[in-house]
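User: Predict the complex with magnesium ion.
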Amino acid sequence: MPIQDSADYILQIENVTKTFAGSKAVDNVDLNVRRGEFVTLLGPSGCGKSTLLRMIAGFEVPTSGRISMRGQDMSNRPAYEREIGMVFQNLALFPHMNVYDNVAFGLRARNRLDELDRKVRDMLSLVGLEGFETRRTGQISGGQRQRVALARSLVTSPDLLLLDEPLSALDLKLRRQLQIELKRIQQEIGITFIFVTHDQEEALSMSDRVAVMNKGSVEQFGTAIETYHFPKTEFVARFVGETNLLRGVVSERSSDGAVICLDDCDTQVSVLTGTEVAAKGDRVAVSIRPEYVVLGSPDKHPVSAQITSHSFSGATVTYALNSVAGPLLAQVPFLPDKGHPLPKGQAVSVGWPADSVTLIPE
Ligand SMILES: Nc1ncnc2c1ncn2[C@@H]1O[C@H](COP(=O)(O)OP(=O)(O)O)[C@@H](O)[C@H]1O
Ligand SMILES: [Mg+2]
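Assistant: Here is the predicted structure with magnesium ion placed in the model:
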């Protein structure tokens, strides 16, 4: 990647740590966000996502490290001077005001009255709420309240919007619909979004880049495709989707890959991805996503296995297998005319394409 000038970044987080009563909620985080990017902080509950977002917003002060925006150090800037918008999980709409007044709030507070009516109407149109101006926020649906919160935070034209799990209280169908809407709106107005979620599918479907967090640290920061297909740590491999992790030792190492000899069997696995961090003799794991595992009759593929159970999910069926290399999951297209689902106890063999395997240092 070419070296970028700091002017390319709207937000730079350098070595930021936040300690609460001696324990690190955020641990030495470095993160640079480009203008117009949709970046997601993804991780399990308690990993420090909200704390990091609140430091960006200026509601918490880092214990150490530096946060800069638009090339300027924000250390001594209070929240209201940072010119950013924020949408919280609980939305915090004003219940005694109607939709119009909720959206107009930020402009009235800044005394920007000339442009007020046009801006509020533009925002209501952007989020699809024309005609709802006089409704109270108690008289609209959860999805519509979400839209009001978004319009309210965008009306002052911030160039950076922070969203802390804004969709997690909604049912799945509405969530999917709003994910698409949010992405459309972000692209239409071209501002930078920093979005927090613990849902990996949500992160992968919306983001330009995903920062996967674990115990206060960012374990990997990359595109959705990189974090899913080329996880660099065991945590990322397991958290961003399901995976098979097989352990072994590097038995060969060449310029274009490595061969891993798996524990407890003589199976050799070729790996092409992630091998630059490993040397011959190192203990490593390999990650193989269940959808790359192929099943065949015994002896067709290198690893022999038995079916232990299956779960059907419409287009695919996921088999749990007991293999000589350990337990495995295989997600295969469901073909009712091809004898699927295979019965428990059925002997099979499994394989995978070499380019679907990623090496993970132990
Ligand atoms: N104000 C606070 N005082 C003490 N501990 C806090 C405070 N805010 C967060 N924490 C702790 O910091 C850790 C990270 O919390 P948080 O950032 O809310 O995680 P997430 O948003 O990823 O669920 C948790 O262990 C939480 O209990
Ligand atoms: Mg949180």
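Residues 172-189 form the longest helix (18 residues).
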